[in-house]
Amino acid sequence: MVIGTCVVYLTAEWVFSLKEKRMVVKSVIEKAKHKFNISIAEVDRQDLHKNIVIGFACVTNERAHADSIIENVINFIENNTDAVIDRIETEIL
Fold this sequence. Notes:
Blueprint: E1 2-11, H1 18-36, E2 39-44, E3 51-60, H2 63-79, E4 84-92
Antiparallel strand pairs: 1-3, 1-4, 2-3
């Protein structure tokens, strides 16, 4: 069993309230969850309206498949929001 985890740190300079941030985060999370069948959530900085931290995990039987899923989810997040990715932390267990 191979577990792939990733934390994506984003900045959304155009967001001016927590309500706006929640709408953006909820949309991205729901779309990614259904498209890739992953576990995904906002994992940190929930009270800062310009910062978004999304964590996700996948379970598979091959390391290459886990890498592929992580890369595809990162590309999906990047293409489905105007927020800028600051940092990405990945780990394969």
